[in-house]
Design a protein that fits this description.
Length: 378
C-alpha cells in the first residue's frame, strides 16, 4: 500500500522525527511512504532524516512552499497526487491539511488523515485567526480520519465534537526506548567531544531555535543557573543557523559572561547518545502539541523540565517530569532545576516509558494495521 505523507519539513526533530520513527519500525514490503515537503532545499538545515527515508525507499518531493506561491504549491501537489496512485493521504500540515485533504478527495484518495501536532499556535493577526478558522471548517469536511499527538492538540485543531467520534484517535509520539537507555561510557565520550568535565553540571536543550521553543528564555534561565552553580554548561542541540535572532542570543551570553559555557551542536543524528551527557533537560516552550523530546529525555533518565499548562499532561509518565509555571521568575526555574538534579542518581527508565505506551515498535504496528484496515475497506 502507498501512503502519501505531507509535512512542512522532515529534518531535525519534530514531525520529521516522528515520521521517521514510525516508518523505521514498519514492514516496508507492506507499506511505502512517499513524502511531500512544503519547503525549499537548505544546506544549512542538513538532510539527516531525508537521507534515512531515501535509504528505506521513500520518494521525497519538495514543492514550492505555500507561503511563497500558493497556486504553484497546489499545482505541484496535485500533480503528485494525480500520478501517484496513493491509497492513503496522511497530512501533517495543521489547518492547511484542509487544503490537501480536499485535493486528495479530488484525486481519488479515499482515506485522508488530518494529523494535529500542535496544541496552540500564536496567531497575533486577526486576519490569520479568521483564515485558520475557515481552514478548520474545511478539515471537518474533507478529512476522513483525525489523528492527534495529544487530546489537547486534537481539541485545538478539530474541536471537542471530533474528539468524541470513532474516526478520531490519539497517536502517541513514540520512541525507541532502548536507544535512550543510560550508558556511562557514552556519557563520557560525548562529554569529551564537547569539552565538558565530569563534574560540570550540564543542562541540555534539544530543538530547533525558533519562537515556539523560547530559546531566549532558555539562556536567561541558564544565566540564573550559573549564578547559583558556576560550574555549569549548556548544550543546545538543533538547527541554530537559520534562527534570525541567533546573533542576539550570542550577544546576551557574551554580555552576561557565560558564552564560553554554551555548546551549539547543530543538527545531530545521535541525539540519544548526546542526551547521555546531560544532567538535566530543560525546554521552556511557549506551546507544544505533544513534545516527544520530553519523553526522550525521561527515557534517558534525565530530570526533565517544561512549561506548566503548555506541555501536555501525557508526557508526565515518570517522576522525572517537572512542570514549572511560565509566570515563574527565571531564578525560580534555576532553583528548581538545581534542587532536583544536582544530587540525583541517574537510572535507566526505558521500561517505565515503555509501560506508559510510548514504545515505537508497538505503536508502529498499530498504525500499520490501521493503514491496512483502511485499505481493505477501500
Amino acid at each position: 500500500m502507498k501512503v502519501l505523507q505531507i509535512a512542512v519539513g522532515i529534518n531535525g526533530g519534530g514531525v520529521g522525527a516522528v515520521l521517521l520513527n514510525f516508518y523505521t519500525h514498519m514492514n516496508h514490503n507492506d507499506v511505502k511512504f512517499d513524502i511531500i515537503i512544503d519547503d525549499l532545499p537548505s544546506v544549512k538545515n542538513g538532510s539527516l532524516n531525508e537521507d534515512a527515508f531515501k535509504k528505506m525507499g521513500c520518494n521525497i518531493f519538495r514543492v514550492t512552499p505555500k507561503s511563497q506561491n500558493l497556486s504553484e504549491n497546489i499545482r505541484q501537489v496535485s500533480e503528485i497526487m494525480k500520478n501517484g496512485n496513493y491509497d492513503i493521504l496522511h497530512s501533517n500540515m495543521e489547518e492547511w491539511s484542509a487544503l490537501y485533504c480536499k485535493l486528495g478527495k479530488k484525486y481519488g484518495i479515499k482515506t485522508r488523515i488530518a494529523h494535529a501536532h500542535l496544541a496552540y499556535v500564536n496567531n497575533p493577526s486577526f486576519v490569520k485567526r479568521m483564515y485558520n478558522s475557515v481552514l478548520k471548517v474545511g478539515l471537518r469536511r474533507y478529512a476522513t480520519d483525525f489523528f492527534a499527538c495529544s487530546k489537547d492538540a486534537g481539541r485545538y485543531l478539530f474541536g471537542d465534537k471530533i474528539l468524541k467520534k470513532n474516526n478520531f484517535r490519539v497517536l502517541p509520539n513514540a520512541i525507541d526506548t532502548k536507544s535512550y537507555s543510560y550508558n556511562p561510557s557514552t556519557r563520557k565520550r560525548i562529554r569529551n567531544e564537547f569539552g565538558i568535565a565530569d563534574t560540570t553540571f550540564a543542562v541540555g536543550f534539544v530543538g530547533r531555535l525558533y519562537y515556539q521553543k523560547n530559546p531566549e528564555r532558555m539562556l536567561s534561565i541558564f544565566n540564573e543557573i550559573c549564578k547559583l552553580h558556576p560550574d555549569s554548561h549548556l548544550v543546545i542541540v538543533g538547527d541554530y543557523k537559520s534562527y534570525a535572532k541567533f546573533d542576539g542570543l550570542k550577544k546576551y551570553a557574551e554580555e552576561n559572561g557565560f558564552s564560553d559555557k554554551i555548546t551549539y551542536t547543530g543538527l545531530r543524528k545521535d541525539v540519544p547518545d548526546v542526551m547521555q551527557a546531560f544532567d538535566a533537560f530543560v525546554l521552556p516552550s511557549r506551546y507544544e502539541g505533544f513534545g516527544i523530546v520530553y519523553i526522550e529525555a525521561q527515557a534517558a533518565g534525565l530530570m526533565t523540565f517544561g512549561t506548566a499548562k503548555v506541555v501536555p499532561e501525557e508526557v508526565d509518565c515518570t517522576p522525572l517530569m517537572h512542570f514549572i509555571d511560565s509566570q515563574s521568575e527565571d531564578k525560580l526555574w534555576a532553583k528548581q532545576i538545581l534542587e532536583n538534579s544536582l544530587d540525583y542518581e541517574r537510572k535507566d527508565t526505558a521500561k517505565e516509558i515503555e509501560n506508559c505506551g510510548f514504545e515505537i515498535s508497538v505503536e508502529a504496528k498499530k498504525l500499520q494495521q490501521f493503514y491496512e484496515d483502511k485499505t481493505k475497506g477501500n
